[in-house]
Description:
By secondary structure, the chain is mainly α. 70% of the residues lie in helices and 0% in strands. Helix 1 crosses helix 11 (274-281) and helix 2 packs across helix 7 (167-193).
Amino acid sequence: MDKIFSEKINLLKALAIMIVVSGHLEFSLIPMFPPYSYQVMIFFFIAGILFNPKYNFTEYFKRRFKSLMVPYFLYALAYMVITLIIAPHCGKFWGMPVTFKNELLMPFLTGHQLDLISPLWFVPCLFITLLVYKIFSCIRCNDFIKLGAYFILCLCAIHFQKYAQNINYLWIFRTMFALFFIQLGYLYGIFYKSNSIQKFNIFSTKILGMVLILQSILWLTNKDFTPQDGIGLHFLLVWGQYNNWIVPILTSITGIYISLYIIEVLYEKIKDWKFLNKIGKNSYHIMANHLLIFNIITYLFLLIKGISFDIKNNADIYWFYFPLKTTYFYFIIGIISTTYLGEALRNTKNFINTLLHKHLNV
C-alpha cells in the first residue's frame, strides 16, 4: 500500500470516528448526512480496503483477534472495574450484572454488557464479520458476483429484521448486512491501486451533484423530526432495525462517498495536520473512551451548577447537560482528550514492548 493511500485511509478513519462521536451528541458533522445513516458502515468499508487475502484462516484469525479482541477485552476489564468503583457514588450501576456470560458471551451477542463502552459493540461485530468474509473469500468467483451476493444478503438482513430482535440471532443479521460494505471497500482498494479511480474520476463535480440529488430524494423518506414517526434515514445496525428495504443501503453508500470525497478534495490541505492524523491512529481508543469523558463532563457540570446527580441517573448513558449550549464543547473536549489518552496508551505499550524485547535478547 503506497504512502499517500495509507495516509488517506488514516484521515478517513479520523473523519469516521468524528462522525461517530457527533452522532452520539446528536448533530451531523456533515450537513444532509445524518451520522446514524452511515457512520458504522464507513469502518466496515475501511476494513474491506485493508483486507489482505494472503493469510490462511488460522493466521488471519490470530491477527484479527490480537488487533481487535485483545484490546477489547482489556477495555472491558478496565471498564468493569471503573463501573464497580463509581456505582456507589453515582447511585447507579451502568450495565448488566457482572457474570461470566455477560462479560465473555454478551460482547458477541449485543456488546452492551457495560454502558460506558457500549460504542465498542462494533468491535466484536467487525471481528465476526471479517472471519465470515475470510471464509467466503476462499470461494473462487468474480468479485462483482460476490458483491451482488452480499447485496442480496444485505436485503435479506433488512427483510428478516424481526428475527434480529432475538439477541441469539442478532449477530447473524449484523454480519449479513455488513458483508456487502466490506466487499465494497475491498473493490475500492483494488481499483484505487490500479488507478481506475483516477481514470473514471469518481470524485468529479458531476458525480458529487448526482450523490447530493440522490441524498435529497432520500430525505423525502426522513422521519426523524418527531419520535413517533420512527427512525427515518437513520438505521440501527446495532439492533438490526431499519425503516425501509433500500434506504439504509443507499444512505450508507452516499455517506461513504461524501466522506471519501471530503478526504480526496481536502487531502493536500490536511495531510500534514498532525493532530488529525493522531485522531485516525487512535480511532479505537476514541471509540472506547468518549462516553466516559462525556459522563465526567456531565457530572462536573451538575456539580458546578449544584444539581442533584439523580437527574443523570434517571436518564440513559448518552444524556448530557444542556445540549443547546454544550454540544460542541463535549465534542471538542471528547475528541482531544480521548486522542491524547490513546497516544499515551500506545506509547506505554510501545515502551513495554521495547523493554520486553531488550530483556528477552539479553
